[in-house]
Amino acid sequence: MEDKITLTITRRKLTEIFMGLVALFFAGGATASILKYLWPATAATGESVEIKIANVDEVPTGSVKKFMFNGKASVLLHMPAGFRAFGSVCTHLGCIASWKPDENLIECPCHLGKFDPNTGEVVSGPPPSPLPAIDIVVKNGAVFALNWKDSNYVKTISFYSGAA
């Protein structure tokens, strides 16, 4: 007695299987994106990592260098008094602020919010709070970003979610 098992797959059944796998693939990607949004990756408490921004000679006095810090647009300014670094995402509506050398200010192009380049404080315009400062260190001829000066303040700014 020989029992043969035959398996017949029609084109319709093969298409259904394929479409089910594609749907599963997209559902998995959507789920991963939602989970990443709800639980963003954060650094361990107290962890300080040096991120090289630029060599000292790359940023002459009165100029800037844009960089990313903890996933947020940031800016390194070389002022006559030394280097300063701030997150450059405006605290008003999240636009990227930029350096205006002729005005000696950091300016947000969306609603003309202006920030002091030495402190990050709001000079004029609608931004409700100052730009968050970044601790930096100059060593071996290079400028390194360490961490947010006040990570508790950074956590209160909605546009910096997950950055501190």
Topology:
Layout: H1 11-38, E1 51-55, E2 64-69, E3 72-79, E4 82-87, E5 98-100, E6 105-107, E7 114-115, E8 122-124, E9 134-139, E10 142-148, H2 151-156
Characterization of this structure:
The longest helix is centred in the first third of the chain and has 28 residues. The strands form 3 sheets. This protein has a 4-stranded antiparallel sheet with strand order 5-6-7-8, with no helix packed on it. The chain has a domain of 110 residues: Rieske [2Fe-2S] iron-sulphur domain (Rieske Iron-sulfur Protein), CATH 2.102.10.10. The chain is α+β, with helices and mostly antiparallel strands and 164 residues long. The chain is elongated. A hairpin with a 6-residue loop joins β6 and β7.
CATH class of one domain: Mainly Beta
Structural class by secondary-structure content: alpha+beta
From the 3D coordinates, which CATH architecture of one domain would you assign? 3-layer Sandwich
> Mean of the pLDDT scores?
86
The helicity comes to 10-25%
CATH topology of one domain: Rieske Iron-sulfur Protein
Radius of gyration: 25 Å
- Give the overall shape: elongated
Q: Tally of extended strands? A: 10
Please state how the strands of the largest beta sheet are arranged side by side: 5-6-7-8
Characterize the main sheet: 4 strands, antiparallel
